[in-house]
Amino acid sequence: MQPVRQERRSIATRDEAEGFLASFSRTMGELEEVLLHETREIEAGRIRSGLSQEERKSALAAGYLRGLEHARANAIAIARFAPEAASRLKDAHHGFRAALEHNQQVLATARAVSEGLVKGVAEEMARQARPSGYGVVPPARPATGPLVYSGRF
Question: Is the separation of the CB atoms in 27 and 64 below 8 Å?
Answer without folding.
Answer: yes
